[in-house]
Every structure is written in structure tokens, then in C-alpha cells.
Design brief:
The complex is a heterodimer. Chain A is mostly beta strands. Chain A contains no helices and eleven strands. The chains are: A mainly beta, B mainly beta.
Chain lengths: ~110, ~110
């Protein structure tokens, strides 16, 4: 238990669906991150939020829309996804950015049909 | 791109020390060495990090060579639950470099 929770743990959706992934951290951290891990590929950073402000968008398609209403919560809204978007989506948080250690949640396993 | 090189896989007998090597020959003076592990289909778990001194915590020890071009993660008494993919990452200390750039890691299998 790292203090970072993600829901749902598993999600199956069609290409026309709209769904959201939720991440919550109970560590008092100020920075939150979304990563994507596709099969047999390294983790890829998607978005970074620091004090609720987005500080990095790593060329992510607009069908992925992040939202950070406060420092403890991070959402990833999904719309019109493709089958190749099927992956493990991981949330992480850290006290700040720079060299502060990132702590990861358990991930959401997403399957797009 | 990941700036580290690790063997793709290793085996270790249960109860023995597991020594996982990592080469980072292009590391610069302000870059830290981080180790994470990922048990199948779970989120990565932070293990340890260091700059130039050897470090030890309740999970592992990190030995960094004097020239900082390589390091070794040591799990002193490996258990079956240590079976995972272990990632060695170098990370700048400059503000604005929030990325952890994961490579392909070392798949460690603990043998009963």
C-alpha cells in the first residue's frame, strides 16, 4: 500500500464510450502524474500536474483529457479510444517534482474493444 | 531514451543475495540513480536511490562505483516475493525534469 489508490482496477470499454479513471493520493503530495504502460513497452509519461497546474503534456492525443481539481485527486477522461490504447494506466504522486520520489498506484488495466 | 543498461533477466536462489547490475556510463554529476521494481501487473514500487554514496534501507542496498558509471542493487536475502522486473533509472536533479524514464529493466526470478 503506497498511499496512492486508483479506480477502477479493470475497465473494458468500446471505442465510442466515455469513461474516466480516478486517482487519489493520501500522502499530502503536490505533484501527480499519469503514465501508460503498453504490453512489452517501457512506461511512458503522459501528464504531470504540480499544485493542480499541468506542467507537462507528453504529446498525448486529445482523446485523453486529464483533470486535477485539487492536489489529492487526478482524473483521466477517456473518449473515442482506439484498441491500441489498451494498456495499464498508472498514477503516481510526489511531494514536488525534480528529484522527489514518485510513488505509484496499482494501475487501471484498460481494454478497448 | 533510457540512459541505463541492464541485463534482461537473472535468476537467484531463495535465501541468497540477489545482485542486480546497472551501467550508466554517461551519467552526469547532478543525476541520481533510482531503483524501482514492478511485480506483474502492479504499479512500480520505489526501492532506493543515491547520488554517489552507497545507500541502505530496509529493502535493499545500493552500491555506486567511485566513477559513478555503474551501480549494483543488492537484495540481501531474496524471497519468492522479490520476483519482479527491476528498473534502474538515472534522473536529473534540475527543477523541471519530472520524468522517470523507464527502460526495459531486469526480470529477476527467485528460484525456490
Amino acid at each position: 500500500e503506497t498511499g496512492v489508490t486508483q479506480t477502477p482496477r479493470h475497465l473494458v470499454m468500446g471505442m465510442t464510450n466515455k469513461k474516466s479513471l480516478k486517482c487519489e493520493q493520501h500522502l499530502g503530495h503536490n505533484a501527480m502524474y499519469w503514465y501508460k504502460q503498453s504490453a512489452k513497452k517501457p512506461l511512458e509519461l503522459m501528464f504531470v500536474y504540480n499544485f493542480k497546474e499541468q506542467t507537462e503534456n507528453n504529446s498525448v492525443p486529445s482523446r485523453f483529457s486529464p483533470e486535477c481539481p485539487n492536489s489529492s485527486h487526478l482524473f483521466l477522461h477517456l473518449h473515442t479510444l482506439q484498441p491500441e490504447d489498451s494498456a495499464l494506466y498508472l498514477c503516481a504522486s510526489s511531494r514536488g517534482t525534480a528529484t522527489d520520489t514518485q510513488y505509484f498506484g496499482p494501475g487501471t488495466r484498460l481494454t478497448v474493444l | 531514451d533510457a540512459k541505463t543498461t541492464q541485463p534482461p533477466s537473472m535468476d537467484c536462489a531463495e535465501g541468497r543475495a540477489a545482485n542486480l547490475p546497472c551501467n550508466h556510463s554517461t551519467i552526469s554529476g547532478n543525476e541520481y540513480v533510482y531503483w524501482y521494481r514492478q511485480i506483474h501487473s502492479q504499479g512500480p514500487q520505489y526501492i532506493i536511490h543515491g547520488l554517489k554514496n552507497n545507500e541502505t534501507n530496509e529493502m535493499a542496498s545500493l552500491i555506486i562505483t567511485e566513477d559513478r558509471k555503474s551501480s549494483t542493487l543488492i537484495l540481501p536475502h531474496a524471497t519468492l516475493r522479490d520476483t519482479a522486473v527491476y528498473y534502474c533509472i538515472v534522473r536529473e536533479s534540475n527543477f523541471g525534469n519530472e520524468k522517470l524514464t523507464f527502460g526495459t529493466g531486469t526480470r529477476l526470478t527467485i528460484i525456490p
